[in-house]
Design brief:
- The protein is 49% helix and 0% strand.
- It is an all-alpha fold.
- The chain is globular.
- It has a domain of 70 residues: 434 Repressor (Amino-terminal Domain).
- The relative contact order is 0.19.
C-alpha cells in the first residue's frame, strides 16, 4: 500500500536533482539507506524527526519539502468537478502548519 506517494516522489526528485544516491542522502540525514528507500516508495509515513532529518539531508527546510510533496502527490493532480447549473464550488480553506525541528 502506498501511504505517502507525494512525499516519496518529492524526496526522490529532490535527491536526484542534487545528484545524491539514497546512501549519500541517508548519511547526510543520519539515517539508514533503507529508511530513504522505504519513504521514497511510499511504504511508510516517516516520523516528524525523520521527515526533518531528510529535509536537512536534502538541504531544504521542512516547509519546502512539504510544498514539493504537495506538488508531486495526489493534490497536484487536477480534478474536475461537475456541479449542477447555478452551483459553485465550496471555498477552499487554507491551513498553516508551523513546526519547529529539534536540533540535536
Amino acid at each position: 500500500m502506498n501511504r505517502a506517494p507525494g512525499l516519496g516522489k518529492a524526496v526522490r526528485a529532490l535527491r536526484r536533482e542534487r545528484g545524491l544516491t539514497q546512501e549519500s542522502l541517508a548519511q547526510r540525514a543520519g539515517l539508514h539507506a533503507n529508511s530513504i528507500s522505504v519513504v521514497e516508495r511510499g511504504l511508510t509515513l516517516p516520523t516528524m524527526e525523520t521527515f526533518f532529518a531528510i529535509a536537512d539531508g536534502l538541504g531544504v527546510e521542512g516547509y519546502e519539502l512539504m510544498y514539493a510533496m504537495n506538488r508531486r502527490g495526489k493534490s497536484a493532480k487536477k480534478t474536475q468537478q461537475t456541479l449542477p447549473a447555478g452551483k459553485s464550488a465550496p471555498a477552499k480553506r487554507t491551513v498553516r502548519l508551523s513546526v519547529r525541528a529539534k536540533k540535536t
